[in-house]
Amino acid sequence: MEVDLTTFLVALSLVGALFYWLSRNNDYFHHKPIPSLASKPIFGSTGSLLLKKYSFSDYISMIYNKFPGVKVFGLHDVNIPMFVIRDPELIKQIGVKDFDHFMDHRPIFGHDNDDSPDQLFVKTLFTMKDQKWRNMRATLSPAFTGSKMRQMFELVVHCAENMVDFYRGAVKSGKEYEMKDVFSRFTNDVIATCAFGIQVDSSRERDNEFYRVGKEMMQFGRFSVLIRILACRLMPSLMTSFGVDIIDKKHNRYFSKLIKEAVNARETRGIVRPDMINLLMQARKGLLNHQQETEQREGFAVVEESEVGKGQVTKTMTEPEMIAQCLIFFLAGFDTVSTCLTFLAYELTLNPEIQDKLYEEIVETHESLGGKSLTYDALHKMKYMDMVISESLRLWSPVPAVDRLCVKDYTLDDGEGLKFTIEKGTGVWFPVHGLHRDPKYYPNPEKFIPERFSEENHANINLGAYLPFGVGPRNCIGSRFALMEVKAIVYYMLKEFSFNRTNQTQVPLTLVKGFAGMSPEKGVHVEFRPRKVR
């Protein structure tokens, strides 16, 4: 009986200690001059999201709209106090001017362990911290300039033409497709050729290994993956010591093998190809430096590189780091770009007058090229195309919120009486989805209006309230590549087909619930109809 009582008391103490540890920050915002959401042990303020009562986008909108007129409010994301910044000027101040205080992302995917070759996600640019991140950003930045995109554009065009040729043969009068499936196959082929140097045709070879492994990797909603993410958020150092990565080891090893074989083949045979592997090989040898380029407007949504990215490279890239960057290119390119295209197709289907106007611009561009393939310069002269995509990114931003970690105590002062300290170790959220649908910045925000982004209206857009690719030095390094890819496939698809609504086209869309990427619950079903030859 004595042993049983002792065991019981020890267990009770452990439970009590765990409860205290998980709830130790629950009163954090009580001493701040800002409102905050209620917090519960383990789940914090995000229980309704983690328990799949909301999609991530809808959750961000919900909390954003709870405090109208407030510049900042607080919540607990699991056990981390988060400051949600609703004011565009404060976003620019924190994300750009005072970036040194908010350099990192939160360590929700664990820490890097240099000794573990199977931990790749934590070696990516997205998860790197401090000086390590600065070095890698400066190393990779020259690979994403306009001139490098121009060199890779032919590879993207080849994938687009190949895909359209497939559907041209498959669609005789009209046929329905699910757009996420259509576009994820295209983005898979683009990433395969541009980041891994291999040729695949996922429209025809529907179960090719590269596509199949990619689909498996993107299932972040799996229970096992969610448990890993939660464990990494609660105990990042412990999970790192166990070598835990959110990507399965077999998938990490698959992509590692691909990269190593490609690099070895090129070095032994002297192969040079205008793709990401070639650029990363140059970067590893210190041959890739940021050069001054003639400014060219490549799209309203494109983010400019900061001085961090233009800095001098002082450290070479290791082989695991190089492989990790290819992995993050794949993850971002496979899902984020295909998500953008899926929702864009949805809006074009529901707004045929906008689709027709874009088609007219596509025809004009095609005729100006004399029937030849699309060129990089011609693509960026298409003003209405850019307006349509910019508006789609506003209404359906693939990333509903952008996070930052406070790396040293910061005094937030809005100059109008709001002043308090954001302590080191706490986090910040920029609520992208909420800002993008706020009528204060975008009148009639639920309506798809490309003219918001006409050149005449650019000056009226508050850049702190338009964040499809993030903000400041830690913005998305691949914005040029993503927009180039999106515009190219839209050009080729609309030139051949019209997008039409069917009985399965869900209106309005319902999004998949839970802390996952933005995805339509029932897909986006669209009918392709061949256009008459003009």
Describe this entry's structure for a reader.
There is one protein chain. The chain has 534 residues and is of the alpha+beta class. Helix content is 46%, strand content 8%. It contains 18 helices and nine strands. The chain has helices at residues 2-23, 47-50, 56-66, 88-97, 130-140, 146-170, 179-195, 209-217, 223-234, 236-241, 249-269, 276-284, 319-350, 352-368, 376-379, 383-395, 432-436, 479-496; strands at residues 72-77, 80-85, 175-178, 402-405, 410-413, 419-422, 427-430, 497-501, 525-530. The strands form three sheets. Strands 1-2-7-4 form a four-stranded mixed beta sheet. Helix 13 (319-350) crosses helix 18. The protein starts with a helix and ends with a strand.
- Helix and strand composition category: alpha+beta
Mean pLDDT: 88
How far is it from the N-terminal to the C-terminal residue, by CA? 90 Å
Radius of gyration: 24 Å
The largest sheet is: 4 strands, mixed
Oligomeric state, counting identical vs distinct chains: single chain
Please render the helix and strand layout as text:
Layout: H1 2-23, H2 47-50, H3 56-66, E1 72-77, E2 80-85, H4 88-97, H5 130-140, H6 146-170, E3 175-178, H7 179-195, H8 209-217, H9 223-234, H10 236-241, H11 249-269, H12 276-284, H13 319-350, H14 352-368, H15 376-379, H16 383-395, E4 402-405, E5 410-413, E6 419-422, E7 427-430, H17 432-436, H18 479-496, E8 497-501, E9 525-530
Helix pairs in contact: 6-7, 6-18, 7-13, 11-13, 13-16, 13-18
